[in-house]
Structures are given as C-alpha cells and as structure tokens.
Amino acid sequence: MFRNQYDTDVVTWSPAGRIHQIEYAMEAVKQGSAAVGLQSKDYVVLATLKRAASELSAYQRKLFKIDDHMGIAIAGLTADGRVLSRYMRSECINHRFVYESPLNVGRLVTQIADKSQVCTQRSWKRPYGVGLLVGGYDATGAHLYYTCPSGNYFEYKAMAMGARSQAAKTYLERKFETFEDCSLDELIQHALFALKESCTEGDLNSKNCSVAVVGIDRAFEILEGDAIQPHIAAMESEDSAAMETVDLPAAEATEGGDEPPAPAAGGDEPAPMEQ
C-alpha cells in the first residue's frame, strides 16, 4: 500500500469507490498476531499467539475478560483493543445494574460494530485498528462473533484472524463439522492445532500462547502458563502418534516389497568399433 491523495482522512472516497484509511486499519489486523476462535453447542474457545517486543520484554496480552459469560481475543493495535474492552465492560456492568441479568452477546457486538462504524464517517477520527473475536454464552447458547474496523460483524462457527491466519482457517474448514459435539478438552485441542498452523516464531509453547474458555457450566477463564501446558503436551503427543501412523505403512511397504531384479547375465555387449 502506498500513500496517495485519497487517504488523508476517513471521509474521502477514491475514484474506485474505496476508503483507504479503512483498508489500512484492516491491514493492521492482518499483521497482528494470530487469534483463533471456535465453538460447540455448549462451549466457546479462544486461542491467541502472544508477541514480545524484544527478548527482554514480556509477552503482550491478547485475551481480555469482559464479563463472567463473555470475553474477547484481539489482533491488531493492542491499545485500541484495550479501549474497546473497557467500553464493553462498562456496558456489561450498566446492563447488570439496570436489568439484573447478563448482557446478550449479540447485542453487545452490535454496539461495538456501531461504535466502529462511527469512526468511518467522522473526519476528525480514525478507524480502530483492531479486530475482535467475541466469544460468550448467554440464554440463547454459545456464540462466536468477529468484528471488523469497517463496522461489519459476523457470527461464525470457527474463525481465525491475524498474521498467517489462512493456514489456521484451512484447518478449521477441514474440521468444523465435528466441533458441534466436541467436549471442552477436544475443542481446546482443535484450537491449539489451528494456532500451530499459524505459528511463525518457533514451536507453540505455554509462554507464547494463551487460551480462554467459556460455556454452559463454566465462567470465562483464561488459561496461561502451567494451566495450558497439559493441553500442549497432549497436542504434541497426538501429533507424534499421527506422524508414526503415517510413517508405518511406508516402512512396511519398503520391508515387504520385492527388490528390483538384477540385470540379466550374459547380455550382449556393444561390439567394438572398427578402426
């Protein structure tokens, strides 16, 4: 992307019908660290890769608790994600105070989308450079939403965003039909496998990833460090077993196969050329 005369503010349209500042904000989401979300009929799991600014710094948080029944994963500008998470918490607290019940997940996502859309039609504002995966469980069941800097939002069965998210999406597209009846542990395993596909800096471990769960009988909880290590170990053992299963038929075929026949003895050799 290159700077041009049509990207000086967010209310200027290009001749091609594009608003470049919105596209820049969506590009910031694509360059953020990967985040994955998936749901079954009873649970929602969010998983994120964490980045460190340098070897001396701690990893940035990418998962935020909004309420006991809801949380978000972010990709893009972390500061914008913190601002939106604070707004979402405020809305949940106000709803509980007035109605004495948790806020519907879809209604809060709509409010966030409206808030993001306002930033696309005010010349003195800029779009939020962050994408959100909102997971929650309310009276209507488990829900997973994705919100975009443009103000659009969609509900998904499984979704990935951020850097190299296409590899994670490919995994989710292969497996999503089995998610509906998965247990919580199985859903976490699928989330880690999808996240592993997008991992660019070394192997997936308990330091550079975090997982959040919420469901019918479980309040929103973030699993990090030692809490996530058993799931990563189970993923690695399952991965190793799958590799051994693939290698075994090839080894058996090599051992039991016929050796190539030796060349026949006594074959005619080419006659020497006359001088």
Please characterize this protein's 3D structure:
- With 275 residues, the chain is of the alpha+beta class.
- 37% of the residues lie in helices and 22% in strands.
- The protein contains 6 helices and 10 strands.
- It has helices at residues 20-31, 78-99, 105-118, 165-175, 184-197, 229-256; strands at residues 35-39, 43-49, 63-67, 70-76, 130-138, 141-147, 153-155, 158-161, 209-215, 218-223.
- The protein has a 5-stranded antiparallel β-sheet with strand order 8-1-2-9-10.
- Helix 4 (165-175) runs antiparallel to helix 5 (184-197).
- The longest helix has 28 residues, at 229-256.
- It is globular and about 55 Å long.
- The termini are far apart.
- Residues 271-275 have low confidence and may be disordered.
Give me the secondary-structure topology:
Blueprint: H1 20-31, E1 35-39, E2 43-49, E3 63-67, E4 70-76, H2 78-99, H3 105-118, E5 130-138, E6 141-147, E7 153-155, E8 158-161, H4 165-175, H5 184-197, E9 209-215, E10 218-223, H6 229-256
Antiparallel strand pairs: 1-2, 1-8, 2-9, 3-4, 4-5, 5-6, 6-7, 9-10
| Structural class computed from helices and strand pairing | alpha+beta
**Beta strand count:** 10
- Give unreliable regions as ranges: 271-275
Q: How widely separated are the two ends?
A: 72 Å
Strand arrangement in the largest pleated sheet = 8-1-2-9-10
**Element order: H for helix, E for strand:** HEEEEHHEEEEHHEEH
Share of helix, binned: 25-40%
> What is the overall number of helices?
6
| Mean pLDDT score | 88
How can the largest sheet be summarized? 5 strands, antiparallel
Mass-distribution shape: globular
How much strand? 15-25%
Gyration radius, rounded:
26 Å
